[in-house]
Amino acid sequence: MEENKKRPIRPEQEQSQQPGIESEMKPQPKFEGNEIEQKLTGKVTYISGGDSGIGRAIAVLFAKHGSDIAISYFSEHNDAKKTKEEVEKQGVKCLLIDGDLKEESFCKHSIQLTVKTFGRLDVLINNAAVQYPQKDLKNISADQLTETFQTNIFAMFYLTIEALNYLNEGSTIINTTSVTAYRGSAHLIDYASTKGAIVAFTRSLSAALADKKIRVNAVAPGPIWTPLIPASFDKKEVSEFGSNVPLKRAGEPEEVAPSYLFLASNDSTYMTGQILHPNGGEIVNG
């Protein structure tokens, strides 16, 4: 039997001139693409750290897909107002809630205010984080260690525990971890440790909520160009940020947000306990 033998897959045809006439082609080329569908119509999404960076990109993309948005943030009021403007351009509502996620009372309040405002909660995105580079483990003070863990992982517990009072079957929880959870980071040991904890939190919570049909997944971004970068590193490091990954550049927040949309929508109904890796090509086997 002859291998790789060509077989007709459309009627024989030819045209006598370039560049050709599309209307004469059989079958007609497909040009309309898939129907543009709003994947989150009527839903409400809460995003911690949604004022800028990845959080802003998620908020705007989710708004384009029909979700109302609640954003909690610390003190970056101008960034938050800009995000609200961009979200509301999409014809949905946006609630801004400023406060300190390290405080359990604020986490509870922000979830309760979201539900009071919109009447429901469908998607919880635990995204807020801080990082404080140190060249030596000995330089990580007790205060820094406490702040990093309280912000990056304790707040996820506080928000999720409160959100579970309102999430129902079909709801989703998406946590932001990091490539550092998989490959480590010599100068971000406490930060990477919290991100590793988030991976374990995601996998454990997904198992705990599977019977309730609430899916829990995470996204592990690599180097992404967000305000956290110039706020963390010196000028030279910032100028080179992201150049060491296979794609040789830092990613943009808009390149990460679709991972969250996928996990929040019905496109991923058979996925829970999983981590997506928009990281510029690093192989992390996670």
Automatic annotation (TrEMBL):
Xref: Pfam families: adh_short_C2
A molecular function (GO) term: oxidoreductase activity, acting on CH-OH group of donors
Entry keyword Oxidoreductase: yes
Protein name per the record: NAD(P)-dependent oxidoreductase
Domain of life: Bacteria
PANTHER family given in the database record: NADPH-DEPENDENT ALDEHYDE REDUCTASE 1, CHLOROPLASTIC, NADPH-DEPENDENT ALDEHYDE REDUCTASE-LIKE PROTEIN, CHLOROPLASTIC-RELATED
Comp. bias intervals (Basic and acidic residues): 1-13, 23-32
The species this protein was found in: Solitalea longa
Family: Belongs to the short-chain dehydrogenases/reductases (SDR) family.
InterPro entries in the cross-refs: NAD(P)-bd_dom_sf, Sc_DH/Rdtase_CS, SDR_fam
Keywords: Oxidoreductase
Region (Disordered), start-end ranges: 1-32
